[in-house]
Write a structure and sequence with these properties.
This protein is an alpha+beta fold. The chain is built from 3 helices and 3 strands; from the N terminus they run αβββαα. The protein is 30% helix and 14% strand.
């Protein structure tokens, strides 16, 4: 059982003492990892439906079927505007 004195001391400590902080590795340093190789899109299949896989080397690859591919093609200008604005606009 904690005494009220130690509980009071813990309450007085700033929250930053309890949070882990890590410094990012310098960009040109030894710890900087090389980017993964960019692999071309791949085709896959799920329950008889064809899928396109845009990042097959990742742990959770991005894959979608023909219906979503049609939506992407129809709205490519809005997607490009979204990326160009940093996620602030689609127009």
């Amino acid at each position: 059982m904690k005494s009220t004195r130690s509980a009071a001391r813990a309450a007085e400590r700033p929250l930053s003492l309890f949070m882990k902080t890590t410094k990012p590795a310098p960009l040109g340093g030894v710890l900087a990892a090389a980017p993964p190789p960019v692999l071309p899109p791949a085709l896959s299949e799920f329950k008889g439906h064809k899928l396109v896989v845009l990042n097959p080397h990742e742990r959770f690859p991005l894959q979608f079927g023909l219906g979503k591919a049609r939506l992407i093609v129809a709205n490519i200008a809005a997607i490009q505007a979204f990326v160009a604005s940093g996620g602030l606009s689609v127009a």
